[in-house]
């Protein structure tokens, strides 16, 4: 229903987005993943027709949009909506916030009342109509913002980092709401996230962006952390869970790395080799995929390892098995 | 000392007996100043808004100029408007000099830089996300501008009360342009000036008390609006 072709966008002479082709189908959930500055937000702003690309075309139901009249663009823009990463609530009540999109469309107040009631129920905030927005918690505010978007009954809902700035308990709630939106409203949802596991949990399709370009396969084991120089003079990558990998790197500081799941060797005993990374972990998940088996192993953080079905059977791995993971410093790919 | 105490006694007598002359002067003051404020708001708020959101050549200079004009001496405004509307001036044919309209023009010129400059700072203080939020929810450009103004409503009301406080209390322009004609262009400030010089302290003090009372009411509104700003 929505697609882009040969899309290019530059800011200050730096290309921030360069996409040959990207298409979205009706009533599916899409996750756009990638590190900060990879162009996720710019892409959402362009898809939502808020920012014009320097080059390229956008099609909504096979109709080219950008070169249309302003009123036509407005008409299509009103079929979608975007919830920002750091959303803003008008200084007023919950009701008048949620009503905003309906007011600008001049819908009758009876329709407004009904839709607002339903939308607030949908996000689990029934009866919040008369609350002042400054009395809401962060998680409640986030859900009011989603209700404000849903009430429009958009065909496409864009969510920019919907769970980036809320606590764990509310993340689960927002994730449930996203799943519910698709199930009950059949809305196409396109959201960005840092959290690869969240992307896989919620989305039918995961789109991976890096430096404004789409990368073919989503990197498993994409980790956020910091490259530090240790006392021994060697550089290591320290993850959020405080696990440290040997890494080959010129720079230090915050970074994204990924470890190809097929580059990790599993064994029951530690073994001598030239590989500098070796960790003891526990198998927490086993997913069989045709000739391959995907294992999730907890070494303080979850890492995915892919091995062939044959070696899986030979090694007799089970849930809870303690295994050593071994991989070379050069297998830790730095972005 | 006695004349002051007598004056105050007389003043309260005049106020509580709802003296006709006093109240016609008060009403004219309010009428002139309110008209000037409504007109300057209608022009100044949109201008202040546009100056803030549009990029144009000389934007900084315009803002500096507006801020300088906040302290425009009222007699200079009086002089300027006088030279325009006096019989020999370019607008002399309309016969506006020494009419309430002339005073409205003078006060309008005093108020408009205040409204523009304070609207500018009000809009500038508004969260940059308001416009985008409105647009994502399907607003047109005009509707999103309205959303910004609405968010700035208390700060803009503050601008209006500030301007009203200035024009209701000014005397120079009103004296020069209105001429302080009894029953026609005599307003509170010009009446106080005249009656005091005539030795009619009671009359002057009565008007002074009412003027202070109006200033108090304006300030109560002003503080209310200020407290509602976030």
Automatic annotation (TrEMBL), chain A:
Q: Which SUPFAM superfamilies match?
A: MOP-like, P-loop containing nucleoside triphosphate hydrolases
Give the source's domain of life in one word: Bacteria
Which PROSITE patterns has this protein been placed in? ABC_TRANSPORTER_1, ABC_TRANSPORTER_2, MOP
Its keywords, alphabetically, are: ATP-binding, Molybdenum, Nucleotide-binding, Transport
A Gene Ontology biological process term: molybdate ion transport
Q: Which residues form the Mop domain?
A: 272-335
Q: What is the lineage of its organism?
A: Bacteria, Pseudomonadati, Atribacterota, Candidatus Phoenicimicrobiia, Candidatus Pheonicimicrobiales
Which SMART domains does the entry link to? AAA (SM00382)
Q: What is the source species?
A: Candidatus Sediminicultor quintus
One example of the protein's molecular function in GO is: ATP hydrolysis activity
Q: Where is the ABC transporter domain?
A: 2-236
Q: What is this protein called?
A: ABC transporter ATP-binding protein
Tell me which Pfam families the record gives: ABC_tran, TOBE
From TrEMBL, chain B:
Q: Where are the transmembrane segments?
A: 22-51, 63-85, 91-119, 201-221
User: According to its UniProt record, which protein family does this protein belong to?
Assistant: Belongs to the binding-protein-dependent transport system permease family.
Designated name of the protein: ABC transporter permease
Q: What is its main location?
A: membrane
Give the highest taxon in the source lineage. Answer: Bacteria
A biological-process GO annotation: transmembrane transport
Quote the cellular component terms of the Gene Ontology held in the record.
plasma membrane
Keywords associated with the record: Membrane, Transmembrane, Transmembrane helix, Transport
- Kindly list the organism's lineage: Bacteria, Pseudomonadati, Atribacterota, Candidatus Phoenicimicrobiia, Candidatus Pheonicimicrobiales
Q: Where does this one sit in the cell?
A: Cell membrane
Q: Which residues form the ABC transmembrane type-1 domain?
A: 26-222
Entry membrane topology? Multi-pass membrane protein
Task: Quote the InterPro entries the UniProt record gives.
Answer: ABC_perm_TupB-like, MetI-like, MetI-like_sf
Key word Magnesium present: no
A Pfam family it matches = BPD_transp_1
């Amino acid at each position: 229903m929505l697609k882009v072709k040969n899309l290019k966008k530059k800011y200050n002479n730096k290309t921030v987005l360069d996409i040959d082709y990207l298409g979205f189908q009706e009533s599916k959930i899409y996750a756009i993943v990638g590190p900060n500055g990879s162009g996720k937000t710019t892409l959402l702003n362009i898809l939502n027709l808020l920012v014009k690309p320097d080059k390229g075309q956008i099609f909504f139901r096979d109709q080219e949009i950008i070169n249309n009249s302003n009123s036509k663009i407005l008409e299509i823009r009103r079929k979608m909506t975007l919830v920002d990463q750091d959303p803003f609530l008008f200084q007023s009540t919950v009701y008048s916030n949620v009503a905003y999109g309906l007011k600008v469309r001049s819908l009758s107040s009876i329709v407004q009342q009904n839709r607002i009631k339903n939308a607030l129920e949908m996000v689990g905030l029934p009866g919040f109509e008369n609350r002042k927005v400054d009395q809401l918690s962060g998680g409640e505010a986030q859900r009011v913002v989603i209700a404000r978007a849903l009430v429009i009954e958009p065909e496409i809902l864009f969510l920019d980092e919907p769970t980036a700035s809320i606590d764990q308990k509310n993340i689960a709630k927002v994730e449930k709401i996203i799943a519910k939106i698709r199930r009950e409203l059949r809305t196409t949802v396109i959201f960005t996230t840092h959290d690869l596991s969240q992307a896989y949990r919620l989305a039918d399709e995961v789109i991976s962006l890096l430096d404004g370009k789409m990368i073919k396969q989503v990197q498993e084991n994409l980790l956020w952390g910091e490259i530090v120089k240790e006392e021994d003079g060697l550089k290591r990558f320290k993850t959020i869970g405080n696990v440290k990998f040997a890494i080959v790197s010129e720079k230090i500081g915050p970074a994204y790395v990924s470890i190809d799941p097929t580059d990790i060797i599993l064994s029951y005993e530690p073994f001598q080799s030239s590989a500098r990374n070796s960790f003891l972990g526990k198998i927490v998940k086993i997913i069989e995929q045709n000739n391959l088996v995907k294992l999730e192993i907890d070494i303080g953080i979850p890492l995915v390892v892919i091995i062939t079905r044959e070696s899986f059977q030979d090694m007799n791995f089970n849930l809870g098995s303690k295994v050593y993971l071994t991989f070379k410093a050069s297998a830790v790919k730095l972005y | 000392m006695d004349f002051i105490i007598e004056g105050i006694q007389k003043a309260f007598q005049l106020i509580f007996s709802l003296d006709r002359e006093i109240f016609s002067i008060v009403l004219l003051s309010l009428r002139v100043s309110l008209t000037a404020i409504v007109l300057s708001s209608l022009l100044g708020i949109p201008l202040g808004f546009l100056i803030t959101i549009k990029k144009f050549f000389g934007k900084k200079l315009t803002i500096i100029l507006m801020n300088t004009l906040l302290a425009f001496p009222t007699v200079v405004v009086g002089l300027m408007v006088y030279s325009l509307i006096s019989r020999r001036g370019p607008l002399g044919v309309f016969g506006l000099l020494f009419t309430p309209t002339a005073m409205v023009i003078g006060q309008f010129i005093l108020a408009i830089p205040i409204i523009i400059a304070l609207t500018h700072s009000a809009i500038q203080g508004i969260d940059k996300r308001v416009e985008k939020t409105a647009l994502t929810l399907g607003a047109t450009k005009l509707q999103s501008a309205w959303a910004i103004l609405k968010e700035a409503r208390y700060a803009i009301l503050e601008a209006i009360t500030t301007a009203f406080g200035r024009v209701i209390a000014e005397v120079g322009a009103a004296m020069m342009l209105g001429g302080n004609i009894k029953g026609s262009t005599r307003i509170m400030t010009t009446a106080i000036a005249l009656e005091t010089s005539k030795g009619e302290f009671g009359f002057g003090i009565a008007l002074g008390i009412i003027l202070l009372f109006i200033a108090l009411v304006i300030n109560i509104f002003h503080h209310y609006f200020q407290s509602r700003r976030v």
